Amino acid sequence: MRSIFLFIAFFIYLISFSQNPVNWNISYNKNTVVFSAEIDSNWHLYAVDVPFPNQGPLPTIVEFKKQKNYLLKGKVYQEKPIIKYDKDFGIDVAYYQNKTNFYQKIRPISDSFKIQGNINYMACDDNQCLALEKIFNLQVNRQD
């Protein structure tokens, strides 16, 4: 009986981690890194700046691996999210449906460099929430 329970628990674990309702595209344009998210229907992706960061769903967090060929200018900024009271979390939440973009301005120090890091984010539908991570690695070769 115990082995059946472990098999079912492992199967649920695999299903939840194989599911990814957000498709990311990371690009570089005019000294700005653009993080484009396409969100599956009936799913929400939470904002970078949320009304209650220590309560409710996890905000989207973009972390950069330290590099010496560019500098970050300011912090990641976002498009205007939907802000709505969520009865499950019991607070106002800031989220996106369908698609959104996040932006990070940088100051290049050389003409060729890598932008590396990860995006930690949470996506929820009416039945579940998934805490996910996207690792990014972008090679930039600027032409003057």
Q: Name the CATH class.
A: Mainly Beta
Dominant shape: elongated
Number of strands: 10
**Rg from alpha-carbon coordinates:** 18 Å
Q: How many domains, as an integer?
A: 1
Main beta sheet, described? Answer: 6 strands, antiparallel
Helix content: 10-25%
Provide the CATH architecture: Sandwich
Contiguous uncertain segments of 5+ residues = 2-16
Q: Which structural class do the helices and strands define? A: mainly beta
The fold-level CATH name is Immunoglobulin-like
Q: What proportion strand?
A: over 45%
* H/E series: HEEEEEEEEEE
Structural features, described:
- With 144 residues, the chain is mostly beta strands.
- It has a single domain (22-141), classed as Immunoglobulin-like, CATH 2.60.40.
- The protein has 1 helix and 10 strands, in the order αββββββββββ.
- It has one helix spanning 2-18; strands at 22-29, 32-39, 44-46, 61-64, 70-78, 82-86, 91-96, 99-108, 112-124, 129-141.
- Strands 3, 4, 6, 7, 9 and 10 form a 6-stranded antiparallel β-sheet that branches.
- Strand 9 and strand 10 form a beta hairpin.
- The model is unreliable at 2-16 (pLDDT under 50).
